Amino acid sequence: MARTHLLKRITIALAITLGAHSLAHGASAPEPQPYGERDEVKAFAHELAQKESLNEAQVLATLAEARYLPAVIKAILPPASPSVKSWVRYRARYLDRTRIAAGTAFWREHAATLARAEAEFGVPADIIVGIIGVETIYGRNQGNFQTLSALATLAFDYPPRAELFRRELGDLFLLARDTSMPVTSYKGSYAGALGLPQFLPSSIRRYAVDYDGDGKVSLDTSADDAIGSVASFLSQHGWERGGAIAVPARVTDPQRAAALVEAGIAPSFRKQDFERLGVAADTPAAEDKPAALIDLVSPEAATEYWLGYQNFYVITRYNRSSFYAMAVFHLATAIRLERERGA
What we know:
This protein is of the alpha+beta class. The protein has 16 helices and six strands. The protein has helices spanning 2-24, 39-52, 56-64, 70-76, 87-94, 97-109, 111-121, 125-136, 147-157, 162-179, 201-207, 223-236, 254-262, 271-276, 310-318, 322-342, and strands spanning 145-146, 187-188, 246-251, 279-281, 292-298, 301-308. The strands form two sheets. The protein has a four-stranded antiparallel beta sheet with strand order 4-3-6-5, with helices on both faces. A two-stranded antiparallel ribbon has the order 1-2. Helix 7 (111-121) runs parallel beside helix 12 and helix 9 (147-157) packs antiparallel against helix 10. The longest helix is centred in the first third of the chain and has 23 residues, at 2-24.
């Protein structure tokens, strides 16, 4: 009997392993039951309708129009070798001549709006330009996935982050109600992000602003709205007007400094904490304010260390990755320098 149970457990474990392997390598999987027929989708429609005073039948009928998108699952799966991370390669993806030239042109075209946003929200123009450049190359790559289907796929067929994407799916319905747009009309990234700045539906509802004054928020077509909304998002997440973002750091003993890195990306250490563990800012102008030690690892190069201050942390609220925040910072700096040279 014990041997039979052991064989069953091995068989189940092997099936799970093979299923995960197939997903990770793009192997075809059986298409799930249509969303309109699934009990968890019906429960979602009922709960959303009750909570937000929506018509339950209409919500379910709309969800029935969603389609399972295998490409969305493939795109969101972590890499087969997650330990192989390279800052050098990541940086090269975003700090290229195409983005720098496009960012310089974008800044030139929208200089007045960027100056207004910087004055109003305290967020530097180059950071706003850097984020929109990393996200979509100034609107060139906004994504072509139907947002309803992308979010339904992730909400009901990607268990690791189902809770997050069910919230975003609910916010998509509310966004459609707010704007009198059909839920089925939105298109964006595989993860449901929309427009030039790639805001999720919840972020559009909370942080987006009508910055061109036409009475509506149009992040897919209005650069002014995108600029104001990025500045609004960063401001509401705690951007410090005039504050430092990040400075290079010298680390004399990486093993001793490991505890600082492992403490996370939130700025929680002061100058004396870093000095005690052999870490120093690589510039005399560094602020004596709380910072985090950021390690940018590349297998093919020496690890870069930086001190990340409050504003660096705020950029990670946009995308919770130190690689992302540093790419924005570097692209912003490169575009600003290019603009200054051109002046």
